[in-house]
Fold this sequence. Notes:
globular, two-stranded antiparallel ribbon, disordered C terminus, mainly alpha, 76% helix, 11 helices
Amino acid sequence: MERLNDILTEVSGLLWGWPMIILLLGTHVYLTIILRFPQRYIFTAIKLSVRKDPGATGDVSQFGSLATALAATIGTGNIIGVATAVALGGPGAVLWCWLTGVFGISTKYAEGLLAIKYRVKTKKGRMLGGPMYALERGLGWKWLAVLFAVFTALASFGIGNTVQANAIATVTNETYNVSPYLTGIVICLLAGAVVLGGVKSIARVCGLLVPTFFASTVPTCGQP
């Protein structure tokens, strides 16, 4: 078991080293140039995302889609990741986080555009989309689309659930002395109720929670 852990640690170190930094930042810069700096339309995009469009197609509203995307993007990784970067690299690391975020707008735009372009409608009228559809219908690589879907499903048990649930359970236990088992059961029931309700239920909940999260993180005027 220790040998397996050493191998995984070594592979993780290689993947999350310079190769990954060059690949991610390189993709951001490349798409920014090739798409002619889509960042200049950021305020137009925000306006389109928050207004209502009765004629728009899709299962959720523009704001619901935005809130769902933000809920899947910001979270434990962003909060702890930035704190870790500052602790290890100093305050200057914040500059690189900002630059990566600004150039990353192009990658996020390209991802959303491809998801809409290659999405499909089921017989029941529901929309299905995502990178797997872009890989299958855009590039014709069905095998890679299947692998992406499988690995995403497997990864969701770790990066999508375990880390967040553990963080909530730990804080609740240390602060209010609530059993982690009880916290886990409550989180499971709440998450299950939202997920089983479908994409519309997820969008509605994200539309309520994401603005609340942002409002709670913005310091009150006069406070540090």
